[in-house]
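Data card: per-record layout.
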Amino acid sequence: MGAGGDGKSAHRGQAGLDCRRVSNPFFTFWLENITDGYLEKLYNLCTCLIAASEAEGFGIPIVEAARHYLPIIARDIPIFREVAGNHASYFDTPSPDDLAEVIKDWLKKHETNQAPLSAEIHWLTWAESAQQLLHVIQKTDYHKANQCTRLL
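The structure for this 152-residue chain is written out next.
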């Protein structure tokens, strides 16, 4: 199951959701515009999260998976390492066939309780995140660093 961004050739699926068939064998449907409640149900049905993005701004799916104690298989990019640390399995292959092997290896580790657990990932609440941002703003002289006359 895949969920997220805009997709071409969208069709109406069950419950009025935009969904489309995806030719990738790992996914049955790509869901768009789903509600938080529906996403919650999906996370509760998953065995793991596979985060295969090649570029990511923050990695919200990693945090969401950790909130649901889902194991994570993630592409080895800096932001995923920053968010998940040693609490995810990583891959760096661009090949779908090689990724399939990574998943097979992960399944063996998962069956023997040797796969990393996401439960140890610490995620920030919105309030904690805002507090950290405020702290950075307050301790940094943005006027000199950015040659700004005012900070909005």
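Known properties of this structure: Residues 2-122 form a domain with the Rossmann fold fold (CATH 3.40.50.2000). Residues 19 and 125 are 30 Å apart (CA to CA).

See the next section for split statistics.
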